Amino acid sequence: MLVTVLVALGGLSLHLAVCFAVYAGVVGVLAGLRKRPELVRSAERAVIAVFALLTLAMIGLEAALLGDRFDLAFVAQISTREQPWMFKIALWGGQAGSLLLWTWMLGVMSFLVVVQNRRRNRTLVPWVIALMMLNVVFFSALVAYVSNPFDVLEPGQAWSSGQGMNPLLQHPVMLIHPPILYVGFIGFSVPFAFASAALITGELGTAWFETTRRWTLTAWFFLGLGLMLGGRWAYEVLGWGGYWAWDPVENSSLMPWLAGTAFLHSVMIQEKRGMLKVWNFALIGMAYTLCVFGTFLTRSGVVQSVHSFANAGWFGQLFLAYVGVLAVLYTVLLVRRVPELRSQTRLDSIVSREASFLLNNYAFLALLAIVFYGTLFPVVSEAITGVKVQIGPPFFQRYAGPVAIFLLFLTGVGPLVAWRRATWVNLRKSFLWPAGVAVLAAVLLFAFGLRRFYPLAFLSLCAFVTATIAEEYGRGIRARMGRGENALVAFLELLRRNQRRYGGYVVHLSVILMFIGFAGATFNLEETKLLAPGESWSLGGYTVEYRQVRPVDHPHYAGAVARLALHRNGDPVGMLLPEKRMYFQQEQPTTIPAVASNLYEDFYVILAGLEPDQRAALKVYINPLVNWIWIGGFVFVVGNTLLLWPMGSRARSARERAS
Amino acid sequence: MQIALAALSIGAGLALVLTLGSAGEGTFRYYSDVGSFVNAPSAEVANLPARVHGFVVSGSIAKNLDAGHVDFHVADDSGSGNASRALPVRYLGIDVPDLFKDGAEVVVEGHFASGTFLAERVMAKCPSKYEAKPPGSSI
């Protein structure tokens, strides 16, 4: 009964949300034009209503999923009676639910923006509301009229249970990866709305990005975390021994992240030196447009991909049109303001912090261009020449590699080089010993037999950047200890007083750790062999003995699990149990890898094939240093938490000084 | 200065593109059906590695596990016993995907040499009506 009411209410709220969003948007524009406070308040109240209605729609759909309402096409498609509740509530398993989640998050963010800005940015607010509502209207209309999760099946088609979520997605990481990625994508809508509002109203100062700094950083953090979790899931579930395939959908979330990274850096130059104003507006516009474009790539099936959802032609066209409208609208707004945005300050020297940040921006955009080209070339080529040409990972690696080396170098140089014009003394003071460490690392690695260019360059630059970070922390801590603080207090005070700088270094450190993992990938080993029970196979210092294979019986799948005894240099490591499954209902085979992991390398094995005579085709991947990527991921979370944690550094230290 | 820096960067980018050559390695020409691959001019086929989409001809799979390869035919429809329209494929490996069987929809990746398509990768497509497609269909 309760479920019926909630579901009915949810379906209705969705339609009402569209109406209220249209109202809020229109009144927002009017309020912006006429500058009448009562109109602004009316728009704000409508935003709150939109948020409430979308929340009801979410509750309705969750109730339908938990209440096994298989008369709804969407529920029948992604859920079954037996599915554990955590996977039942995962409404991002299908397109309609994903879009509703997306829309709801937009609603939540619009609501928070309204609450945060009750007394701030009053001239910007009406336009911010209008922009946010433009997004809400588009997405809620899609959910309500094109891909509605509340659509009911014809009476004859209703089932007693559903098809269930794709078994590949039934993994703990998949419970958090999609929503985290969505927070990243949608979070960029807030700085985008503020930037647009600033361009419309002509309030071109720093308010638009200072107000939204936390939003931008949070969105960027979640997008990065989402990318990483996606890699982790691929590594654990897809059974191809890797974590990143330059798949179009992976690329589509990498692109806005790259634009966002460039923005986070260049905005500091505007703060400190009043430069790059046009550039910053352009970057944030690019970041959000790429977010929506990424969703289009994922959802339209324009490019073949792991994630591609059902091919819906005009659905894709609608989306593309929306991306086009956003991009054109924003470009027009920006171009109109360019004369006012010209900065008076010029770059003084190429050896300066400004220049290194600018180069960092070019490098990020170059990466973005490479990824964009590689992802869309097949589509463009087919449209122009009629020949479909596909681009694989080697293309991306070949072009992104040199840019990544350059970026790594700048990661070390940028934060330490002096503003305006660095002097020889400054350079020597900052870089003498990091450069020494880098050379030492390179010599040592070379002496230990590392001869390949990329890992050598990556690892010695990692040493260089780590040394610069250690130097910065060391210098700060020593200075404070000189004033009688102990080392720990000095460290915490340093973080508290200059949160962005020292938190930022921790994020840089996480990138370094990840690059150690990427460097290891150049030594990946991959081999397949057919073994009969009792046979052993030696490779890469390991010996793997195939003991036996056993069938696995389960209500939802049939499978086989191989028992492998693993030895490393003669010492037992343990039993590995790679498994193969075939899910009946979804006709979905899955391969569950077994991994023996340590800080040096992963021994990753899958049961690639099984013959009737019990001979097994084993595929082994030995992935050096891959764990450092996940360690880097953990440090990435720590660093961003340090950056976002409300420490109230400035206000508090001011008060302390006053007392 | 900024303009000089931008020009310098673009120059460096172009130099990078020129020194590293075109998008050669890792690039494939995609054929959405076997017919267009079989009928393509041999110069074109020899030029780039290819991905060919088709269906495994029923009864054509011959696993030669000891020699380390799997032979089969790919055609535009799975039932086609008409060998002239089918492309003989040798997969240079034994780890065929789970969904690889008679009639399966596949994409083979490799190159054509002396009458046989030598595949380095075989990707099988899931036949179900699922929204989320299996990883086998990835690029």
Tell me the greatest interface: A-B, 64 and 42 residues
Q: Count of DSSP E strands of chain A? A: 11
CATH fold annotation of chain B:
OB fold (Dihydrolipoamide Acetyltransferase, E2P)
* Structural classification of chain B: alpha+beta
Which strand order does the major sheet of chain B show? 2-4-5-7-6
Mean pLDDT of chain B: 75
CATH architecture classification of chain B: Beta Barrel
Oligomer: heterodimer
Radius of gyration of chain A (Å):
27 Å
> Runs of chain A with pLDDT <50, length 5+?
305-312
**Average residue-wise pLDDT of chain A:** 90
Care to describe what's here?
The complex is a heterodimer of chains A (659) and B (139). Chain A is an alpha+beta fold. Chain A has four domains: 1-155 and 163-170; 193-284 and 298-415, no CATH class; 416-522 and 636-649, no CATH class; 524-628, no CATH class. In chain A, 64% of the residues lie in helices and 12% in strands. Chain A contains 21 helices and eleven strands. Chain A has helices at 2-34, 37-66, 73-78, 85-88, 95-116, 125-146, 172-187, 189-201, 207-211, 213-238, 248-273, 277-300, 313-341, 353-385, 393-413, 424-447, 453-481, 487-497, 499-520, 627-644, 649-658, and strands at 388-391, 525-531, 536-539, 542-553, 557-568, 571-576, 579-583, 588-592, 594-597, 601-610, 616-624. In chain A, strands 3, 4, 5, 6, 7 and 8 form a six-stranded antiparallel β-sheet that branches. A four-stranded antiparallel β-sheet of chain A has the order 2-11-10-9, with no helix packed on it. Chain A starts with a helix and ends with a helix. Chain B is of the alpha+beta class and 139 residues long. Chain B has one domain (26-137): Nucleic acid-binding proteins (OB fold (Dihydrolipoamide Acetyltransferase, E2P), Beta Barrel), CATH 2.40.50.140. Chain B contains three helices and seven strands, in the order H-E-H-H-E-E-E-E-E-E. Chain B has helices spanning 2-20, 34-38, 42-47, and strands spanning 27-31, 50-56, 62-64, 69-75, 87-91, 105-113, 116-124. Chain B has a five-stranded mixed beta barrel. In chain B, a hairpin with a 2-residue loop joins strand 6 (105-113) and strand 7 (116-124). The termini of chain B are far apart. The relative contact order of chain B is 0.15. At the A-B interface, helix 14, strand 1, helix 15 and strand 8 of A face helix 1 and strand 1 of B. Strand 1 (388-391) of chain A pairs antiparallel with strand 1 (27-31) of chain B.
